[in-house]
Each structure stands twice: as structure tokens, then as C-alpha cells.
Design goal:
The chain is mostly helical. The protein is built from 10 helices and 3 strands; from the N terminus they run ααααααααββαβα.
Amino acid sequence: MSASGGTKAIVAALAANLAIAVSKFVAFAFSGSSSMLAEGVHSLADSGNQALLLVGGKKAQREATPQHPFGYGRERYIYAFLVSIVLFSVGGMFAIYEGYEKIKHPHEIEHWYWPVGVLVFAIIAESFSFRTAIKESNPLRGDHSWTEFVRRAKAPELPVVLLEDLGALVGLILALGGVGIALLTGDGVWDGIGTVCIGVLLVLIALVLAAETKSLLLGEAAGTDEVRKIETAIVDGDTVTRVIHMRTLHLGPEELLVAAKIAVRHDDTATEIATAIDAAEARIREAVPIARVIYLEPDIYSETEAAKGPDPAATPGGPVQPATDH
């Protein structure tokens, strides 16, 4: 997996979640706290999710085959989508069910120091994991907000780990609040309410992850900045005079397909056009290194056809389609 896949953040989250899961299950066994059980299942599900991300990154590195000529880069999107399903079902729905049962049949928390101690330990461990994910994400995030980063990122691993860690920290605080109020009031219903809140939080995070990874699976275009760089690189002002229209598609987080119809002069020879196309491809790869699959089709620009508007069928002619970020 490439550096942008956030392997360090995934491994840090995996180690933290495994340690936390064990401690939570031990606390549940001694205290009977449903919040602890829900949090233990959540941490176990998170550990499985990080394992899925690592497997997806490994599978995505396979070489292209005749059956899959564009490679396996989208494996990372598939496994990230599976993470959202696991988080929704094993994490969120289980917590909601467990909380409902606790509210319906409350019982007093025993050995309160177990759940409280484990929750404090878990908050510290998750904070270190979250800090690692933030440090790994900052160079890629640039000047964008965290919301924009999650929505715009083409590599799914870091947004997944960030949202998981954020959900884990908020969930731990909710669990600590539920256990604390239950201890203060002597009413175990509060432990169940905290558990339901954890479940709702996990379901919401899972839905966000599912929406983002679904968009990546469907196929997203390059970002606005990358499209602008590609357009600039294509035109040399001599043989290639303009871009008639262009389409881009991410075949994976680090592999971009570029297909464009370009305008050439009507009196250029085939050799001159072929040479110009080769030079344009080289400039594109220099400007945007992830543009690895490039198809450039030469044509004669027509003012009449261009006047018809941006209809892709009205070619040659028609302005370049404006790029929009997801």
C-alpha cells in the first residue's frame, strides 16, 4: 500500500483496538455493564475493519491481467465499503439492541472500578491512535477542512480510520457518561441509554462511510486542480491547439484514466500528430504522475459544432466539460 493509504495509521488503530477490546470484555465480565459489552464488540469490529483495510491494500497491488486490464486498484474501495457494512451491523445495530435490552431489563453495575478504569485506559489509547491518523492525514489534507478531506479523498483508508477513531472516542465518552450516571443514581437504565447512543453514533458514521465509498466505487473524476493541470499539459499551442472535451476516472486511489479529444491543425501530417500526442502524454504524466492510462484522440476543431454546446455527442466541437470535486 502506498504512503497515502495510511498504513501506519491503520496499524496503530489495529493495535489500539485489539488491546482495548480485551480490556472491555474483561470489564464486562466483572461488572455486567452493557456499555462495556457494546464497546467491546465495537472495538473488536474496528479491529476487523482495520484488517480488512490492510487486506484491501495488499490485493490492490496485484498486476493487471487480460480479464482485468486496468488492474485491481478499486479493491481498496470494495474493502472500505465492507468496513462500513461491518460498522453498521456488528457495531451499531448490536449496540442499539444491547442498549434496548438493558433499558428493558436494567440491573445494577457491579465492581464499578472495572468499567471506569477500562474506559479511561481506552480513551488514552484511542487518543494516541486518533493522533496518528491526524498526523498521517495532514500532509494530504493541505488547506482543506476535515469535512472536505473526507469527501475529496480518493484513498479511502485514512478517512475510514479517522471516522472510526472519532466515533470510538465519542462512544467512549458516552459510555463513561452512561456508566457514571448509572453509578450515581443506582439506575442501570442510564447504562442502557449510553449504549443506545453509542449504537446510533456508529450507525451514522457507517452511513457516511458507505456514501463516500459508494461514490468511489461508482467512479470519481480527478479533482479540479488535477483536471486543470492536465488541460494545460495537453495543449502545446503548436500542433495541439485545444482540448475539445475530456473525461477522467480514478481506476484506484493512485491511478487515473484520462481520455480526451484534442484539436490539431488540419494540415499536420500523421507523423506530426503522433509525435505531438506522445509529447502531450509525457507532459500529462509529468504534471499529474497518477495519470497512468491516457487516450488522446485527434480531431479538427469546428466552430459550428462548438456552438451547439457541451453535448458530448456534438463532436468535434463543444467546450471542455467543467470539472467538479466530489
